[in-house]
Amino acid sequence: MATHTVQLKLFADLRRFMPPAGEAVAIAPGTTGGDLLRRIGLPVEKAKLIFIDGAQADLSASLQGGERIGIFPPVGGG
Known about the structure:
This protein is mostly beta strands. It has one domain. The chain contains one helix and five strands. It has a five-stranded mixed beta sheet, with no helix packed on it.
């Protein structure tokens, strides 16, 4: 099976889950956002906002390779 890469950006305290190899993460086509989170050990409940190529997406979105993925944690304020 061919592998492709996505560019992964993790924000705020999620940065600690960044893979040691850096932002380029190899995936198989058809990998979902949820699959990607599980692969890097990031608990799904810690990912509040997910953007794929600048558009908000959900964890069931299928990735083909070449996408830019941004993941943000929940934020609080007062």
